[in-house]
Design a protein that fits this description.
Blueprint lengths: L15 E5 L4 E5 L3 E7 L4 E7 L2 E5 L5 E5 L3
């Protein structure tokens, strides 16, 4: 099928899935940010990169939860 997008969620159990139109969900993503802190035990500095994200279901009627049995 053309235009099919597959998204994998590692938190979802293998027996479950969701199929639906992409308009059913909205994603809010913040920009990348960095932080740093002195680390005296390593005689250096530690750095971290992070990004905030939130997901919302806008159209519950456009998504269906699938459960596969044995």
């Amino acid at each position: 099928m053309r235009g099919l997008r597959i998204v994998v969620d590692p938190q979802m159990t293998p027996a479950n899935g969701i199929i639906g139109n992409t308009v059913a969900f909205t994603t809010f993503v913040g920009g990348f940010q960095t932080m740093s802190i002195d680390n005296p035990t390593k005689l250096g500095r530690d750095f971290a990169i992070f990004e905030f994200a939130a997901f919302a279901q806008r159209r519950p009627d456009a998504a269906i939860k699938l459960t596969m049995g044995p």
